[in-house]
């Protein structure tokens, strides 16, 4: 019995001295493991008499229970202590100034696209998208652009192979949708997206953003086109700007017109920005060519429509006074942060 008490006291002492969970686990293995002193006590029973064995076994079991209970209690104490240390080390000083996340800004190209979408969705237009890698058929043929047109020249268009190219305008989106909805007219579309042409200088880029509009229905006239474009100019630049039409040529419209806006710098009086004319060109437009309707299976004697296309970068440059189109793509934070006030 003295041996049992000695093992018990030694175990309790070792448990008390354990200062972390790893040390306590080692004590548990040492005293309660298969090769520990408690297990060794059971080996003594074979040398005891029949009367002594029950008392000895009960004493060994009590010793084992006492050590296990002491280990469990010590373990709870050490876990609480470890948690308190962690909480103390991770304490947050609420008096310190917090972290301020850096808020970015919307690119002016996106600002103009969103402004146009807000304007035209309010007029009942649907936003349409299409592939940037386009077929020659949709990009040129269905837009009534003949094979000998300069736009088909490799100097203007990025061809991937004989039939595929990077779209040179978002007219291809209009042609796809017009073909899809030819039996479900009228239709009103706005088609923003990136386009690609072989240009690169202060006012042109090999990649730029275009937004085209298409309206097809009955009794659509140039007056509808002019009223729509005046509404757009008022929405983007504010009221007070007047637009005018000038005769032009585009393969997919007839008649075709260039659209000018009174110079926002001199209010039409004439200045260096508008080269003394009082007008600034902003986009091209016109009435949809009858041949385009016929290719889509639409009777041009019943339906008419107008289309227009505007460069998003051009609108942004005019609206925000940007001189170089390349500023849109250089990711200069000084340039982009200037537009935070428009977010």
Summarize the structure.
The protein is of the alpha+beta class. 40% of the residues lie in helices and 19% in strands.
Overview of the molecule:
- With 343 residues, the chain is of the alpha+beta class.
- The chain has two domains: 2-89, Methane Monooxygenase Hydroxylase, Chain G, domain 1; 108-342, BirA Bifunctional Protein, domain 2 (2-Layer Sandwich).
- Helix content is 40%, strand content 19%.
- The strands form two sheets. Strands 1-4-5-9-8-7-6 form a seven-stranded mixed beta sheet, sandwiched between helices. A two-stranded antiparallel sheet has the order 2-3.
- Helix 1 (2-17) packs parallel to helix 4.
- The longest helix is centred in the N-terminal third of the chain and has 38 residues, at 52-89.
- The radius of gyration is 41 Å and the shape is elongated.
- It starts with a helix and ends in a 7-residue tail after the last helix.
- 29% of the residues are buried.
- The model has no long low-confidence stretch (mean pLDDT 86).
């Amino acid at each position: 019995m003295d041996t049992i008490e000695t093992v018990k006291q030694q175990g309790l002492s070792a448990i008390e001295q354990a200062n972390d969970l790893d040390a306590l686990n080692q004590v548990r293995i040492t005293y309660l493991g298969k090769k520990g002193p408690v297990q060794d006590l059971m080996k003594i029973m074979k040398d005891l008499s029949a009367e002594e064995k029950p008392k000895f076994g009960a004493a060994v079991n009590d010793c084992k229970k006492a050590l296990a209970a002491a280990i469990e209690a010590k373990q709870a104490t050490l876990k609480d202590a470890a948690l308190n240390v962690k909480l103390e080390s991770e304490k947050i000083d609420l008096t310190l100034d917090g972290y301020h996340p850096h808020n970015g800004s919307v690119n002016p190209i996106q600002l103009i696209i969103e402004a146009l979408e807000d304007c035209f969705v309010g007029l009942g237009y649907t936003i349409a998208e299409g592939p940037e890698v386009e077929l020659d058929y949709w990009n040129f043929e269905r837009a009534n652009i003949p094979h000998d047109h300069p736009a088909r020249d490799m100097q203007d268009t990025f061809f991937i192979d004989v039939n595929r190219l990077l779209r040179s305008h978002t007219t291809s989106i209009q042609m796809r949708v017009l073909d899809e909805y030819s039996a479900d007219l009228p239709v009103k579309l706005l088609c923003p997206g990136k386009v690609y042409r072989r240009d690169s200088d202060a006012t042109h880029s090999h990649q730029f953003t275009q937004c085209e509009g298409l309206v097809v229905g009955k009794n659509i006239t140039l007056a509808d086109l002019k009223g729509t474009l005046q509404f757009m100019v008022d929405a983007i630049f504010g009221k007070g700007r007047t637009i005018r039409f000038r005769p032009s040529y585009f393969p997919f419209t007839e008649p075709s017109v260039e659209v000018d806006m009174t110079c926002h710098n001199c209010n039409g009086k004439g200045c260096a920005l508008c080269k003394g004319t009082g007008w600034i060109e902003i986009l091209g437009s016109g009435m949809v060519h009858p041949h385009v309707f016929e290719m889509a299976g639409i009777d041009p004697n019943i339906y008419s429509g107008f289309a227009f296309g505007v460069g998003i970068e051009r609108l942004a440059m005019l609206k925000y006074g940007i001189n170089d189109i390349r500023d849109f793509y250089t990711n200069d934070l000084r340039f982009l942060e200037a537009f935070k006030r428009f977010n």
